[in-house]
Amino acid sequence: MRELLFFLIMCLLQNAVASTFVGNGGNAGDIELQITLGQIQKGFEFINRDKDAGPEKLCICSQGFSGRPICDVLKQLTEDQVLFCSKVIRMKAEDLARVVGKKDQLKLQWTNKEIEVEELGALRGADAVTNQQEQSITIKQDRFLQMNESEKVFLLAHELFHLTSLQGSLLKDEGAIGPFKSKDGGRQLLNAMAATLVVLSDEYGVFRSNESTLKRSKSYVQNWLTLGLVGVSTPNDPTTALDIERASGFQLGYRYQVNSDFGVVLDFQNLNGEKKILSTAMAKENRRIFSLGGAYRWFPFSNPLSFSGQSHFVMAATLDLHSGSYEVSDPSIGTSASSSSTGYTFACKYFIPFQSGFWGHAGIAYSGLNYRYNLDNQMNLDYKNNGTSLALGVSYGF
Fold first, then answer.
1. Quick check: 174 and 119 in contact, CB under 8 A?
2. Got the DSSP string for 155-193?
3. Which of 46, 101, 55, 393 is nearest to 248 (CA)?
4. Fewer CB within 10 Å, N or C, the chain?
5. Per-residue confidence at 166, pLDDT binned at 50, 70, 90?
6. Which domains does the chain possess?
7. Residue 286 pLDDT > 90, yes or no?
């Protein structure tokens, strides 16, 4: 059993370096990124729907965003630049909405390294960078998670516009374009169009529609603390009048999620049971179980933006170290005994998301713990059968 556990943990550690495809909810920021893409797609759809509207509806700051830093980009535009920005964004809206809606046409990836881009002959730091030849966008993960919704839309929309062409050339930050005549005219145009997507998302209530999803607990966190109530049934073999078949108590647990699929678990259970024998005697048992093992996580539903898509099963196999104490007494006499043993447990829990990192869970476990109480060297209580337990509790992921 120890060799099997060691092999399992080594396999889990080897999987620690594996990456998870962006968008399935397994990485920090995947859910936020999907929401941002959806917000941008809706913004493009609104633009395409109103493509016959006048240019005054685009590339200008709304009353709701007045006074915010993102409006500074739009307030600096001349009338010619507003008209040009409106024309370009309407021209590209339909194609970009289609690209954003098809995952196979857009390659997104995370990085935790510093991003630097060359501009006007010098390097500057960036939160994201677009490879126009590979049609890919690399995003600095920690910075993205620190941004609010409007900043995320602005950043990603700017990078998406880099994937489009105008006047036969891909849009770049450097160089003049149309009425944007400065050395970084391309950047000014890209920022103006990205800011327009932010303003539209606010005007049409897109940000408000995702509030519940953003507040919902996320499954991509690595550290999980659990607290639960446990009830267990452990039949004695052979059955005697002194055996205690049922016990209940609490369970404390910690799980480290190595990656989206595999984790390592450490649990402690404290169980108490008692039984009245005849009319005067009372038997009591206390069991303490330490468990260490590996876990596999499975998501039965595919959409990580939904309540069901965040819920998941965790199947665990652990090696257990058990210690117990037993005593039976009546008004005149009494006896006690202790025991220790090792065994194994197979458990399955289902986790459902609450908010702010909290989860609810329910589960079932099947254990193989064989142990004996020797009462005054005259009678043995042998627990040889596997026990089944049910658990219900809360977890916190961070």
1. yes
2. HHHHHHHTTSEETTEE--SSS-BTTB-STTHHHHHHHHH
3. 393
4. C
5. confident
6. 30-214 (3.40.390), 219-397 (2.40.160.20)
7. yes
